Amino acid sequence: MRRLTVPAIRNAKGKEPIVMLTAYTVRMAQILDPHCDMLLVGDSLGQVIYGLDSSVPVSVEMMIAHGAAVVRGSYHSLVVIDMPFGSYEESPQQAFRSAARLLKETGAAAVKLEGGAVMAETIAFLVARGIPVVGHVGLTPQAVNILGGYGARGRSQEEYAKLIDDARAVAKAGAFAVVVEGVVEPLAIEITKAIDIPTIGIGGSAQCDGQVLVIDDMLGMFDRVPRFVKKYEQLAEKIEAAVAQYSADVRARSFPTIDQTYQPKS
Ligand code: KIV
């Protein structure tokens, strides 16, 4: 199985739904890879892996360490890596330097960056210089300090119209796909119809061209998750039960048994 390419994802619009999940580690990438079209090394790793309050403190170095692991653990999915806050907003030149490092030091095929019309010039600059870009509009978690929280976007007429303009600007600038996060459903549908690149919904609509979720959220690693998450498993409970059993076995000296110990050869 060959790795999916940027044109293959771009051309999937209006055909097959695109399957995307976040991944941060090599073993998880290996497990997800056969089932996904794209793996996102999301800056959500700040909260998911490092227990940070938001993605704002995430560094390029953190993204590189996890991005390289995900590339090593996959051979089919297109790997997209998030540009962390502060690594691209200043200028197209700053964005190019950061994106080039992210791709060269991880082997990922594309970067994702947050922002609509305001990022159009930067997206065009990167694409013209050989860096494929996924846009991200709607709820943009790196802007949490401006937005004041993680609530759904597009509830007012003004914001609804602005977000359509943002998605159009990102597509026109040359992004090959755009994540549409945390918006009222009619807006996700309207954006999907308004632009000619795939929309990847998260808290959007089943009518988006694809879907993405944070892997730990959908596996049930956290009690509290956003409304748009469907928990496909309750892994935290299963891990806790396994560890409780291990702990009981150790305390009762019933582990290890003959099956887990080395005996002298007779
Ligand atoms: O960082 C991330 O995981 C993301 C997804 C939520 C789209 O940007």
Quick synopsis:
With 266 residues, the protein is of the alpha/beta class.
Describe, in plain words, how this protein is organized in 3D.
The chain is an alpha/beta fold. Helices cover 39% and strands 14% of the residues. The chain is built from eleven helices and eight strands. An eight-stranded parallel beta barrel has the order 1-2-3-4-5-6-7-8, surrounded by five helices. Helix 2 (26-32) packs across helix 4 (60-72). The radius of gyration is 20 Å and the shape is globular. The model has no long low-confidence stretch (mean pLDDT 97). It binds 3-methyl-2-oxobutanoic acid. 3-methyl-2-oxobutanoic acid is lined by residues 22, 40, 42-44, 82, 179, 181, 202, 212, 214. The site of 3-methyl-2-oxobutanoic acid has 11 residues, from strand 6.
Task: Report the strand count.
Answer: 8
Strand content: 5-15%
Q: Whole-number average pLDDT?
A: 97
Spans of 5+ residues with little confidence (pLDDT < 50)? Answer: none
N-C termini distance: 48 Å
- In the sheet with the most strands, the strands line up as 1-2-3-4-5-6-7-8
Report the structural category: alpha/beta
- Heteromolecules bound: 3-methyl-2-oxobutanoic acid
Helix/strand order: HEHEHHEHEHEHHEHEEHH
Percent helix, as a range, is 25-40%
Helix count equals: 11
The rough form would be described as globular
Largest sheet: 8 strands, parallel, barrel
Q: What is the radius of gyration computed over CA atoms, rounded to a whole number of angstroms?
A: 20 Å
